[in-house]
Design a protein that fits this description.
The complex is a heterodimer of chains A (about 400) and B (about 525). By secondary structure, chain A is mainly alpha-helical. Chain A contains 13 helices and no strands. Chain A starts with a helix and ends with a helix. Chain B is about 35% helix and about 25% strand. Classes of the chains: A mainly alpha (about 400), B alpha/beta (about 525). At the A-B interface, helix 1, helix 8, helix 9 and helix 13 of A face helix 2, helix 11, helix 12 and strand 18 of B.
Chain lengths: ~400, ~525
């Protein structure tokens, strides 16, 4: 009995200690960033305080952080499912685009139908249907796009890392093609030719989100939207799905040990496709929520990250940072959202080049992720110490 | 002074200093939550083979890793020739004349013998390699110790026994006076074991000290001069081997008398449960793995499949359990044709399988004990609502019952399987496979790497199942196990069944001949 409680205490202590590499990683990232900043004649202290202020220093800053965090969280949940299923999904970007393209099409078409029916812009049941169907369309398109990589892996043993990266390229070009073609905003045609769709009608938009704290309500004057709530609810649901249902059990079983799973009668190929299907679906939701909640149209500058803002990649980091647990992905996404928003402020305040901001972001990611790997290996070493006696 | 002079003069045939006496005194080592070594005393003399015996987890490897500088004792001291010594690292240990042969060889397959031995050592010619010097010295050493190895051959061309000789040569090359051998026979064929024992005896005669780690009683009795038995991190006793017997050693290891032979009820064979008709299959390398195997199994009997490793036993088990494509022939369970059926169908009609590679095929290491217990039944109506939502309280309850019934040692149902010992993992697999009350049980190497206590338990369980009327196919490379449990014995050689005999009138010589294709 005493032994058990002792080891429980030791485990708790270990977890505390295990947290330290993350802090050290952050400190190291700040240190290297400081060197870069000093080299550019900028005051690191001022830079970091600008960053902090820019991310959580005001109501609007906090809201912007959460706005940025929302697509990262959606993608992060999906990546978590894929990783738990043993699939390394690098295709968040492409799946986001696939979801956005499908979602915006549904929203535009249904929105057209809605407008003549009811010119008065009162939110009604039909609005909810438009939004729901658009979200579903986005989910499905992303899911099929991700599921394609899963299918190729399951039946033709095509490495999913390679196929998803390739599919990212295809999605970007497909978006550029469609946004310059049939999806192009009619008012833009033959004018600026900025690749973007028409603006969604109000009925097809996700409502803004505010909290009943103070007057006016908290976040009432910000761009925060309901996408955040949807993402958080889904994170909790996916946690239950993965750890409390037989479907999730099978995904995790295949991810941990394909051979034992197939021995137990689990259809491994089907699970591979299913986990990639869900992962793609969540990335697709990230894409369509950006359109319905924030931009109210799909637009890009033609560059690969022109629409996604690299959320498809940042979601991978958030998933890892969140310990491959959908609930853990919530704070992790908020952290990376804050980093992105804070960096913009830093750029404005100090006038340092934009590329430095990217570098600072990258440093944080590199150090934090390598600390993650460090922790994993250390716990592996601990285990191997206790296992060695079995040899 | 005179003592010191005597030590200095007593050189080994390699020209290195002897270790006349190595002592470990009051060694304590703690790992988080475990006391791995609890005030252990241990000593080895020059010219002695000292066997270190104990179950998995008794602390054998931990103790020797401290001697080799891989771990550091929390308390106690190590004395070499009476001088207190602190061994900081394996390099340090090697310099002091201590060598260790690991269970898994540390050789680079694509490099030659000489290159492997030279690896990590300074060349006598600075930046240029001195492989010819190394080769000459290797030949010299293999001459002295009768360790025939060609220094120019790449490792991958060598048989396992030869690779082990290279490991020993490397240790001697580096000046080992004391050799630690960690379960050196685990990977060898019986003939290779004989060869190894000859080498070990000669090394001892030449003045080397040897520590022989094992859990196989008959080997310890055959090769060692003294035996030290460890249990749960403590030293039980050290006795001269001449005073040891198998039952006595087994009792010291387990802490209670152990049955080494079983009382068996007379066989009561019933209706036919499993029938194989001309089954053929490919091996992993695409060669013929199984070649027209026919076999029938009735309820209430255990049929043992004997054979030297790699003669189709694994393919046979996998063909029956739906994990390998059958290319010709048929498999029937209870009269139903299940040739190439999906494993889930086989589970449903009452076939259970204890896989050979339990850590890879049998369990998911990162899952908890409870989660592993329902690997097949995770969506069974009794454990789910609507086959979707898993009822973990029911799963834990069933798992707790199995833990009690099968005496599985685990802190809780939520413990990850990777932290259990091999014997307890195997008991968990057995509990799970028997929980479905199978009509046919395929048990592949059910006790390999499992400690004596758990082995005894698993054997008793298999006999109970047999008496209940289950048809059991026991595939094992351990002839003692086959003979202790089986009613009939089938011998496999090169993918075929080359002989089938009743266990009661079996002749061990004849079995041996069949196993090597000489029947």
């Amino acid at each position: 009995m005493n032994k058990v409680s002792q080891s429980a205490l030791a485990a708790r202590l270990n977890r505390l200690i295990d947290f330290s590499p993350v802090i050290i990683a952050l400190a190291l990232a700040m240190l290297v960033s400081s060197i870069l900043l000093i080299a550019l004649d900028a005051d690191p202290l001022a830079a970091f305080s600008a960053m902090l202020e820019g991310s959580v220093g005001s109501e609007n800053a906090t809201a912007e952080t959460l706005v940025k965090a929302t697509p990262i969280l959606f993608v992060g949940i999906g990546i978590t499912i894929a990783f738990r299923g043993g699939m390394i999904n690098i295709g968040g970007e492409g799946q986001m685009i696939a979801g956005a393209l499908a979602g915006v099409t549904v929203a535009l078409v249904l929105g057209e139908a809605r407008v003549p029916a009811d010119m008065a812009k009162t939110p009604g049941a039909f609005d909810l249907i438009i939004v729901t169907l658009s979200l579903l369309g986005g989910f499905l398109a992303g899911a099929l796009y991700g599921g394609l990589a899963g299918f190729l892996k399951a039946y033709f043993n095509v490495n999913e890392i390679l196929s998803t990266i390739m599919l990212n390229q295809i999605a970007v070009q497909m978006m550029n093609f469609l946004l310059n073609g049939i999806l192009l905003d009619p008012s833009e045609a033959g004018f600026n030719n900025i690749p973007k769709t028409a603006r969604l009608v109000t009925a097809a938009q996700l409502p803004r989100l505010s909290l009943p704290l103070g007057d006016p309500w908290l976040f009432a004057r910000t761009r925060l939207h309901w996408g955040l709530i949807i993402a958080i609810v889904l994170a909790v649901l996916i946690y239950i799905f993965l750890w409390r249902t037989s479907l999730g059990y099978r995904i995790r079983a295949v991810g941990e040990n394909e051979r034992a799973s197939s021995f137990a009668g689990i259809n491994v190929k089907r699970q591979m496709m299913f986990s990639m299907f869900l992962a793609g679906g969540f990335a697709g939701l990230a894409g369509v929520v950006q359109v319905l909640g924030l931009q109210y149209r799909l637009q890009t500058d033609g560059s690969p990250a022109g629409f996604t803002g690299s959320a498809g990649f940042n979601g991978i980091v958030a998933a890892l940072f969140g310990g491959l647990n959908p609930i853990g992905a919530i704070p992790a996404s908020a952290f990376f959202g804050g980093l992105l928003v804070g960096a913009q402020k830093m750029q404005r305040e100090l006038g340092v080049p934009a590329s430095l901001i990217t570098a600072v972001n990258g440093l944080v990611v590199v150090f934090v992720v390598s600390s993650e790997i460090f922790i994993q290996q250390r716990s592996k070493r601990r285990v191997s110490v206790s296992e060695e006696e079995d040899g | 002074m005179a003592e010191a002079a005597k030590i200095a003069s007593s050189l080994l045939p390699t020209g290195h200093q002897r270790i006349n006496q190595l002592e470990m005194v009051g060694i304590v080592k703690r790992f988080p939550g475990v006391l791995a070594a609890d005030k252990i005393d241990f000593n080895v003399k020059a010219g002695e083979i000292h066997a270190l015996l104990g179950e998995n987890g008794a602390g054998k490897s931990t103790l020797m890793k401290m001697l080799y500088g891989l771990y550091h004792p929390d308390e106690g001291q190590i004395r070499i020739n009476g001088v207190k010594t602190i061994i900081r690292s394996p390099q340090d240990a090697i310099q002091r004349g201590i060598g260790m042969i690991h269970q898994h060889f540390m050789l680079v397959p694509s490099l030659t013998v000489a290159e492997n031995i030279a690896l990590g050592m300074k060349s006598s010619r600075g930046l240029r390699l001195d492989l010819d010097v190394v080769s000459r010295r290797v030949l010299e050493l293999s001459e002295i110790y009768n360790l025939k190895v060609d220094p120019g051959l790449p490792i991958w061309q060598l048989a396992v026994g030869e690779q082990q000789r290279v490991e020993i040569l490397r240790a001697l090359y580096k000046g080992a006076a004391l050799l630690i051998l960690d379960e050196p026979t685990a990977v060898l064929t019986p003939q290779e074991v004989d060869g190894l024992f000859r080498i070990l005896k000669q090394l001892a005669d030449d003045g080397h000290g040897l520590v022989f780690i094992s859990h196989k009683l008959h080997e310890v009795l055959e090769i060692s001069h003294r035996v030290t038995v460890l249990r749960d991190g403590r030293r039980v006793n050290s006795i001269p081997t001449s005073e040891a017997t198998r039952p006595k050693l087994a009792e010291m290891m387990v802490g209670r008398p152990v049955l080494l032979e079983y009382e068996k009820n007379p066989p009561d064979p019933r209706e036919q449960r499993l029938a194989l008709e001309g089954v053929s299959a490919l091996s992993n390398r695409g060669t013929v793995g199984l070649d027209g195997v026919s076999l029938s199994l009735r309820g209430g009997e255990i049929v043992g499949v004997a054979g030297v490793s790699g003669n189709g036993q694994q393919e046979l088990a996998q063909c029956i359990s739906g994990l390998r494509q059958v290319t010709a022939g048929s498999v029937e369970v209870d009269g139903i044709d299940v040739t190439n059926a999906h494993p889930s169908k086989l589970h449903a009609i009452g076939l259970s399988y204890i896989p050979e590679e339990r850590m890879i095929d049998g369990v998911i290491k990162e899952f908890s004990v409870a989660e592993n217990y329902v690997l097949q039944d995770h969506a069974h109506p009794k454990f789910t609502t609507a086959r979707i939502f898993m009822l973990f309280h029911k799963i834990r309850e069933a798992c707790r019952q199995a833990i009690d019934a099968f005496e599985i040692k685990t802190p809780s149902t939520e413990t990850l399987v990777k932290s259990l010992s091999g014997g307890n993992i195997q008991k968990l697999v057995l509990a799970r496979e028997l929980s479905r009350d199978p009509g046919v049980l395929i048990a592949a190497q059910p006790t390999r790497g499992v400690d004596i206590g758990a082995t005894e338990y698993i054997h008793q369980r298999l006999l109970q199942e047999r008496d209940k009327g289950t048809a059991i196919l026991l595939i094992s490379e351990d002839l003692d196990e086959i003979r202790a449990l089986s009613d009939r014995i089938a011998v496999m050689y090169e993918g075929q069944i080359v002989g089938e005999v009743e266990n009661k009138d079996v002749d061990i010589e004849q079995l041996g001949l069949l196993m090597t294709g000489g029947g």
